[in-house]
Write a structure and sequence with these properties.
The protein is of the alpha/beta class and 402 residues long. Helices cover 36% and strands 16% of the residues. The strands form two sheets. It has a seven-stranded parallel sheet with strand order 3-4-2-5-6-1-7, sandwiched between helices. It has a seven-stranded parallel sheet with strand order 10-11-9-12-13-8-14, with helices on both faces. α12 links the parallel β10 and β11.
Length: 402
């Protein structure tokens, strides 16, 4: 199937072709025609399967006809949980809508509000926003919702996890009741279904893959290591394998800063990205990482769903996440859009419980590896899976460059 067969107009097909996309992903094949019907849509698919384009393309097509927005009014609202994800969606809107006469903007906290207010004055076809900053703008009378035709909740499960439910309900109460609502999520959890039941009207439901599983394009494994040797092991893996682009996840902001500083001292250019960093610093670090000015980006889970890098080869869990579901979102930064990726976790005995939760969630054992000189004093017990174990892929043997 081609994008042309999905019913997209010529300006959108031209923009897609310029991105060298030829075959729509499964979520795109189902969601794009569904959104074009004008009905409410509730869609779940794994991270990295093309969800953003699956709502951005038809949204732009539906907005390509119709009235122009009044001053400070918007026609479509896309809500996202993080600044990074908002910026990513905004880039998609700009990329795919470049040949359409539509205006868009992205608003989020951590930066000055006045430039965002100025963008809204002329009226916008598409506004991508984080909930908190959107309410700030509303309270300052900078944005009005009476002309909203389409509402999109992107990464809805993450927004609930981050405690945005009250803000979301407040925003929804301000929108016209007659509108198209699109809910996109990595999973259809009980909370998501409850939210959808009061928000969507007889929605078209799309579920591409089993809930809470990982992409087949990602090779997963773990290294058993004592906690005190994690930093040295990570450094060795990066240097010996000549990894040039590695996204590393830590649990804490302080841990991210400390690890990035250590790697830089070891002549491995690195930067940290987390919630305490200014938006300017976060944007610069991500931009430098994308163009390989730095080899390692150390992030907390705030970046788990907001980083979109073509063919990112390696993700490392320096520490396992507190919430098992976040493991899926972390490793979903690699193996995207059909590309191969590798996800490695550095696991110490103290994390056995977290590992067990993750392996039960993804219903498979992660292949264990050890490196000479880094074997742990205390062995990590093998998880007793509650579900049938999937046969794991044999991990690729890393190449060592002398």
């Amino acid at each position: 199937m081609s994008f042309a067969e999905l019913g997209l107009v010529a300006p959108l097909l031209r923009a897609v072709q310029e991105k060298n996309y030829t075959t729509p992903s499964p979520i795109q094949q189902q969601a794009i025609p569904a959104v074009l019907t004008g009905k409410d849509v509730m869609a779940a698919a794994q991270t990295g399967t093309g969800k953003t384009a699956s709502f951005t393309l038809p949204l732009l097509q539906r907005l390509s006809t119709g009235f122009k927005p009044k001053s400070n009014h918007i026609r479509a609202l896309v809500l996202t949980p993080t600044r990074e994800l908002a910026a990513q969606v905004g880039e998609n809107v700009d990329t795919y809508g470049k040949y359409l006469p539509l205006k868009s903007a992205v608003v989020y906290g951590g930066v000055k509000i006045n430039p965002q207010m100025m963008k809204l004055r002329a009226g916008l076809d598409v506004l991508v926003a984080t909930p908190g900053r959107l309410l700030d703008l509303y309270n300052q009378n900078a944005v009005h919702f009476s002309q909203v035709e389409i509402l999109v909740l992107d990464e809805a499960d993450r927004m609930l996890d981050m405690g945005f439910i009250r803000d979301i309900r407040k925003i929804i109460s301000l929108l016209p009741k007659k509108r198209q609502t699109l809910l996109f999520s990595a999973t259809f959890s009980g909370d998501i279904r409850q939210l959808a039941s009061g928000l969507l009207l007889e929605p078209i439901q799309i579920e591409i893959s089993p809930e809470k599983t990982t992409a087949e394009t990602v090779t997963q494994s773990l290294y058993e290591v004592d906690k005190s040797k994690k930093t040295a092991l990570l450094t060795k893996l990066i240097k010996d394998n000549n990894w040039t682009q590695v996204l590393v996840f830590t649990r804490t902001k302080h841990g991210a800063d400390r690890l990035a500083k250590y790697l830089t001292k070891e002549h491995v250019p690195a930067a940290a990205i987390h919630g305490d960093k200014s938006q300017g610093a976060r944007t610069r670090a991500l931009a430098d990482f994308k163009v390989n000015h730095i080899r390692v980006l150390v992030a907390t889970d705030i970046a788990a769903r907001g980083i979109d890098i073509s063919a990112l080869p390696h993700v490392v869990n320096y520490e396992l996440p507190n919430v098992a579901e976040d493991y899926v979102h972390r490793i979903g930064r690699t193996g995207r859009a059909g590309s191969e990726g590798e996800a490695i976790s550095l696991v110490c005995a103290e994390e056995a419980e977290s590992l067990s939760a993750i392996e039960n969630l993804i219903r498979q054992h992660l292949p264990r590896q050890q490196l000479a000189g880094f074997a742990p004093v205390e062995a990590i017990p093998v998880t007793k899976l509650s579900d049938k174990v999937k046969k794991p892929k044999k991990p690729k043997k890393p190449k060592v460059f002398n």
